[in-house]
């Protein structure tokens, strides 16, 4: 991890992924760089940092007692993470980089100062928290109400929308283990279903790639 002074890099280059309100917030933080597969936040830890993601992407996840991973979602450049600890409680999930990342890191005190000077940012913060709560509710509902196939379809379509007849669309790079971690199933079950879907002509499997060839059926 490396700290970089914001003044050392041209703002238009370093902060180009940010909206105007996040740009002003990020300017208050210390810029830090993290390598791929670096755990930035550990579930259960006590810390109050907020991270504005300037470049790269991260995943939000938990590990159970046996080490099995459950992935809640990904966060990309132009967004922020770590806001759930701003109430002073322990971290509710872990965050790991999926590639080399650059973040502007702020303390809770710096965020409070920003909110005092720019109160409209409160709506940005609340809207993001609500959106993530909705996404968590959707994930919980899918796990409770859908079978493994239904959860796989929901995941694939959430990453690129449903395929249309006669049009092939590529899902963002993802492995069978990634899918298993995100739908709460085993890699073996996911691989079996994907191979059946490929054999039936609905998808094409590649290296860390899935092409949706036609609309997936509701049930398998």
Write the topology of this structure.
Layout: E1 2-4, H1 11-14, H2 20-26, E2 30-34, E3 39-41, E4 50-55, E5 57-63, E6 69-76, E7 80-81, E8 94-97, E9 101-106, H3 108-117, H4 121-145, H5 148-160, E10 169-171, H6 176-183, H7 187-199, E11 203-206, E12 209-212
Antiparallel strand pairs: 1-2, 2-9, 3-8, 4-7, 4-9, 5-6, 5-8, 10-12, 11-12
Describe the structure.
This protein is of the alpha+beta class. Helices cover 36% and strands 25% of the residues. It is built from 7 helices and 12 strands. The strands form 3 sheets. A 5-stranded antiparallel sheet has the order 1-2-9-4-7. The protein has a 4-stranded antiparallel sheet with strand order 3-8-5-6.
């Amino acid at each position: 991890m490396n700290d970089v002074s914001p003044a050392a890099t041209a703002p238009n280059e370093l902060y180009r992924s940010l909206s105007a309100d996040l740009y002003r917030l990020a300017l208050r933080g210390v810029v830090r760089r993290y390598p791929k597969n670096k755990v930035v936040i550990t579930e259960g830890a006590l810390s109050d940092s907020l991270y504005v993601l300037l470049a790269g992407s991260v995943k939000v996840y938990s590990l159970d007692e046996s080490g099995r991973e459950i992935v809640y979602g990904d966060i990309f450049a132009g967004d922020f993470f770590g806001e759930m600890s701003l109430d002073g409680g322990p971290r509710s999930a872990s965050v790991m980089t999926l590639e080399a990342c650059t973040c502007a890191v702020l303390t809770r005190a710096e965020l409070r100062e920003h909110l005092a000077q720019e109160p409209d940012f409160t709506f940005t913060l609340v809207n993001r928290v609500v959106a993530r709560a909705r996404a968590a509710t959707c994930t919980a509902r899918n796990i409770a109400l859908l079978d493994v196939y239904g959860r796989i379809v929901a995941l694939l379509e959430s990453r690129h929308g449903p395929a249309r007849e006669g049009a092939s669309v590529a899902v963002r790079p993802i492995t069978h283990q990634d899918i298993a971690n995100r739908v709460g199933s085993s890699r073996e079950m996911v691989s079996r279903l994907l191979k059946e879907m490929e054999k039936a002509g609905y998808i094409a499997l590649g290296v860390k790639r899935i092409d949706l060839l036609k609309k997936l059926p509701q049930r398998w």
